[in-house]
Design goal:
The structure is a single chain. This protein is mainly beta. The protein has one domain. The chain contains 1 helix and 8 strands. 1% of the residues are buried. It comes from Paenibacillus roseopurpureus. This is Pentapeptide repeat-containing protein. InterPro entries: 5peptide_repeat (IPR001646), Pentapeptide-BTB/POZ_domain (IPR051082).
C-alpha cells in the first residue's frame, strides 16, 4: 500500500466515532486517551507496548500481537481466541490487591479459563496453584498423592 505520509497531532480533541480504513498507522503515540469500545480488525499490532491499560472486556481475534509487551494491565473479562502462544511468557500475574479497582476483600473472583487449548510443553514455575483444576481434577490434591 503506497500512501503519502501525513502526520497528525491531536491534543484535547474528541475524535470519537472516526473510521480508519486502509491506513498506515505505524509508530503512533497515545498518552492519556480513552479508546473504550474501539474495534480493531485485521490489524498488525506487532511490537506494541501497552502500559497501564485497562483491557477489561477486550475481545481479540485475528490480531498479530507478536513481540508485544503488556504491562500493568487490567485484563479482567477479556476474551482471547484462536491464538498462537509459542514462546509467550506470563509472569507476575496477580489477583487485585487492596486499592485496585477490582479488589474484593472476600477474594471471590471469577475463574480464569483455558478451553480447547493445546498446552503441549507448557511449564508452570513457582506459581500458587490453589484451586487449579485440569479437566475437573484438583491439581494440589493430585500432587499430595505423589
Amino acid at each position: 500500500m503506497q500512501l503519502e505520509p501525513n502526520k497528525l497531532e491531536f491534543e484535547m480533541k474528541n475524535i470519537s466515532g472516526s473510521t480508519f480504513k486502509k491506513v498506515n498507522a505505524q509508530e503512533l503515540d497515545f498518552d492519556n486517551v480513552n479508546l473504550s469500545k474501539t474495534k480493531v480488525n485485521n490489524a498488525n499490532l506487532s511490537e506494541m507496548a501497552l502500559n497501564n491499560v485497562n483491557a477489561s472486556g477486550w475481545r481479540l481475534t485475528d490480531i498479530n500481537l507478536s513481540q508485544s509487551c503488556i504491562q500493568n494491565a487490567n485484563m479482567s473479562d477479556m476474551k482471547i481466541e484462536h491464538i498462537h502462544l509459542m514462546g509467550t511468557e506470563f509472569s507476575n500475574i496477580i489477583l487485585p490487591v487492596e486499592g485496585d479497582g477490582n479488589y474484593n476483600p472476600e477474594g471471590d473472583y471469577r475463574p480464569i479459563l483455558f478451553k480447547n487449548c493445546n498446552l503441549t510443553n507448557m511449564e508452570i514455575i513457582d506459581c500458587d496453584i490453589t484451586g487449579l483444576k485440569i479437566n475437573g481434577i484438583l491439581i494440589e490434591e493430585l500432587l499430595k498423592k505423589l
